[in-house]
Amino acid sequence: MHVNNVTGPLGLVGYALDALRQAVHGMQASRLMLVQYESLVENPGMVLNEIYKFIGQDAFQHDFDNVHQETVSYDEKMGTPGLHSVLMVCMAMCKLRWEVFARIKPDQPPFCAKHGCKPT
């Protein structure tokens, strides 16, 4: 029953999938650019440049080492606090390395030489 509520035509996932299906097959499909999440995360500069090119705008120089975004009120309304919080890029990229490092050298605190950040 719960699955139907989420994936049905009015559910959180079902509604989004139906909208995407309509966009891909609709009259404005040529104005739609799909971006793979992994591509955006792994190479944001390249992907954003392609997006700017697609929409006919000059590229903007972003500072990917200093990304802050917060959607507390939206996440709380959806019952998913913290879902869309974005950590600094370095923190997100280094987290797995810190966890692996901690297993290999538990006596040494991990440290990011590039930014000087440490895990919390």
Secondary structure tally, helices: 6
Enumerate the spans where pLDDT stays under 50 for 5 or more consecutive residues. none
Q: Approximately how much helix is present in the residues?
A: 40-55%
Tell me about the biggest sheet?
Answer: none
Radius of gyration using CA atoms only? 19 Å
How does the overall form come out from the CA principal axes?
A: extended
Strand residue content: under 5%
| Total strands | 0
Distance between the termini: 39 Å
The computed structural class is mainly alpha
Query: Mean pLDDT score, rounded?
Result: 75
What string, H for helix and E for strand, traces the elements in order? Answer: HHHHHH
Textual characterization of the structure:
It is a single chain. The chain is mainly α and 120 residues long. It is extended. The chain starts with a helix and ends in a 16-residue tail after the last helix.
Quick description:
The chain contains six helices and no strands.
Q: Mind sketching the topology for me?
A:
Layout: H1 2-7, H2 12-25, H3 37-42, H4 44-55, H5 72-78, H6 89-104
List keywords for this structure.
120 residues; 0% strand; 51% helix
